[in-house]
Amino acid sequence: MKKIVALMSSALPLAFMAQGAGSVSQKALSADRPNIIFILADDMGIGDCSVYNPASKIPTPNIDRLAKEGMLFMDAHAAGSICVPSRYGLLTGQYAFRTWDKFPPQFPNLHDAGRVTIASVLKSGGYDTAMVGKWHLGMQQLAKEGKVRYSPITVGFDYFFGMEQSLDTQPYYYVENDRMVAAPTGHTDGQQGDPSKVSNPSIQGAMWREGAIAPGFVHAQCLPLITSKAADYIKGRSAEGKPFFLYVALPAPHAPWLPLPEFQGKSGAGDYGDYTVQVDDSVRQVLEALEQQGLAENTLVIFTADNGPLWFRGDVQRYGHNAAGIYRGAKGDLYEGGHREPFVARWPGKIRQGSTSAQLVNFTDMMATFAEIAGVELPAGAGPDSFSMLPALLEKPATGPQRTDNVHECHGGASLAFRLGDWKLCLPPKTYQIVNGTITPGAIIDLQRLELYNLKNDPSEKTNLSAQNPEKTTELFALLKENVERGCSRPGGEVTPTGGRVR
């Protein structure tokens, strides 16, 4: 390991995939822009979907249908293994640790005036933009005015209906656009999960925390309401109208696990499984709304989840269900179970039915992908960690750079991992520091805590190979160091003095 310490001070150049021929043209697609619907489940594992895990105890026929009619991605990753960095990376095309390198968590800087988001990019390309569901990227109540500061309306969305954060965390209230539907003037005592059903009743099951609540707010009715708002928005669109982008951030199956009576007992994985069946039914309702409006044929629909499941060993033993599938870890982990997600995409006539892709994908890639689909050029410095996955969706060669490596993060910069090909290096907390955009080994650390895995041979990350492969450990740390200090992953994605903001 002494050799590793010496070599970690120098960075190796990043390697990017060479350009090929016959790329997808922005101009060719700009005249045929699809609607885009991005459905994001909350705290759902890749092993929950039966299309990924035939042994799943949870039936997911509608998610499976999307895969049958579209493309199944096998190596897709949330931008973080917890809610906030995952959503930040999705919306900005930038890893959260670049602006959020401290723990305990602080909200990353999303609300600088003019900061580029997926919504602002698509809006500049003539799209109507809407979001329904869980925001969880900072919101401030202004009780005297009945308004909120920092709603999605401030970063490019034309319409918003949803909640400030997760359904287990107060205050509990709804926001429409930038106004509270009803202020959280009441009080709830909260409740714990049932210890006979879950491993940790303080964070699992039908639990939520004590605090402020709006009159008439019912936790169990939140998922149905968000689903109906998404369907209503679609029903207000027409084939002759402007293309639209709809971001549906479902509050489930994140706790509290509150399946409606018609979904109870529909899985073999307890309330969590039944609530996930209800999530699958929400997907059905969105797809049916598209079909009723005659919009399904010209709409790209993507379904995925924001991070791994909150599912422990005791839950696996109790129900015989592996929510993370074959992968190690869960929500909050650098291991694959914390961020490798179900990711299915359907775009009739464009995406081949029943196809599968091994392309490495991160949520940050949505910005470049959607911009290319819309025929919009990203402002300088926008989406510094975003690579267009459109060639993978259409199974076409690419001329631009494609993702060949990936940075995984948990609590912002508190813990990081770096992936290159089959190799993955995990840097647990306190094994390094990020100071002013520079990464160094921590002042007092045990470098043997660095973990190296070969995902091809060991997808479950059971065997740490760092001691046997010091050169590979050194190489990956150097590449991660360069990525951090360069400030971007994509060539040409260097952040400008304006921070990639729309002028």
Averaged pLDDT, please? 88
Biggest sheet: strands, sense, closure? 10 strands, mixed
- CA radius of gyration is 22 Å
Strand content: 15-25%
Approximate helicity band: 10-25%
Strand order of the largest sheet: 9-8-7-4-12-1-13-14-2-15
Low-confidence stretches: 1-31, 497-503
Termini gap: 48 Å
Number of DSSP E strands: 22
Shape: globular
Tally of DSSP helical segments: 11
SS-derived structural category: alpha/beta
What is shown here, in short?
The chain has helices spanning 2-7, 26-30, 61-69, 83-92, 118-124, 222-235, 270-292, 313-319, 365-374, 390-394, 470-486, and strands at 35-41, 71-73, 76-77, 128-134, 140-142, 147-149, 159-163, 174-176, 179-180, 186-188, 211-213, 244-249, 299-305, 343-346, 355-357, 361-362, 405-409, 416-420, 423-427, 432-435, 438-441, 451-454.
Report what the structure shows.
The chain is α/β, with parallel strands linked by helices. The chain has eleven helices and 22 strands. The protein has helices at residues 2-7, 26-30, 61-69, 83-92, 118-124, 222-235, 270-292, 313-319, 365-374, 390-394, 470-486, and strands at 35-41, 71-73, 76-77, 128-134, 140-142, 147-149, 159-163, 174-176, 179-180, 186-188, 211-213, 244-249, 299-305, 343-346, 355-357, 361-362, 405-409, 416-420, 423-427, 432-435, 438-441, 451-454. The strands form six sheets. Strands 9-8-7-4-12-1-13-14-2-15 form a ten-stranded mixed sheet, with helices on both faces. A hairpin with a 4-residue loop joins strand 5 (140-142) and strand 6 (147-149). Helix 6 runs parallel beside helix 7 (270-292).
